[in-house]
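Minutes, methods subgroup
Present: GH (chair), OT, SY

1. OT presented the first of two proteins processed in the latest run. Sequence and structure tokens recorded below as shown on screen.
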Amino acid sequence: MRILCSAVILAVVMGTVGCGSKSDTAQTTPPAQPAQGGQAAPAPAAGRQGGAAPAAAQITVAEHSATMKTIAQSIQGANKSLKGGDTATATTSVDTLATSFARIETFYTQRKKPDAVKLAQTARSGAQDALAALKAGDAMKAQTALGTTQGTCAQCHKMYREGDGKTTPYAFNAASGITPP
């Protein structure tokens, strides 16, 4: 029953986009889906030009914002589930977390921000470690891996984000060089 409720809540949350002064545009590019071994598959291609390999669809600032909300909810859900001993729900949250960090990695790769790409890779790796620990039945190791992931989040936020999400909406700081289109 908990899994069903979590799935319904996640579906509702994924269908809702918008943050403070961010665009209310719905997410048009689906998040990358996990492939074999927990690795995230690339986003669908926009199409082929000549014989070149397909390019990933450009992830917008609004989509980045929606993915960040998913990350926050997934971390909170995973931590709450682990504290309550519900590893099945925690596993679902952590799987979503790993997929979301792959999407964030793509966002920063498209904008040629190698420092943020590295942090997104580290966070994704931490989520994948937590997922492996959960599948092995080691909830304590999963909590430790999630703690590492959250520390990586804090590093990136210090570099790229301004606003507190309460009195001022989150946004990219001027030094990031990232502006909504």
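2. SY then presented the second protein from the same run.
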Amino acid sequence: MAREYIQAERGVERMRGEAKDCTVRALACAKGISYDEAHAHMKAYGRVDRKGVQARPLYIAYAAAGFELTGIYGTTANARWMQRWFPNIKRHRGTSLKKLLPSLSKGRYIVGMRGHVFAVVDGVVMDYGYLSTGLYVTNIYKLG
């Protein structure tokens, strides 16, 4: 069986010299703000340049930007950890990006996968390059 991929729409251009900034790019695309605004916001909540962000500070930064954690998916280590920190968030069975995309056709979302996040705006995936549709989703944030 051949692996399926979805080509993501290019969102915002990253800052020169920046790396591991998917959390910043996802925020900029999903919220409709500039990369610089998103970068400053994430930095205010503890993101260090050229470094990734752990789940708890990421949750706090996204909540401050108006996003709500609406679901935790699967039984990965990240999903189990998030369930312990956020017991009031609904937990779902594991699902792939392909199965989940139709339910994200209206609204602004940030979708988390193991080690990566990206934006989905009205059903359009906003990221760089291609994403495998078989990858499993770990969490979803929804704007407002």
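Chair's summary of item 2: The two ends are 39 Å apart (CA to CA).
Next meeting: continue with the remaining queue.
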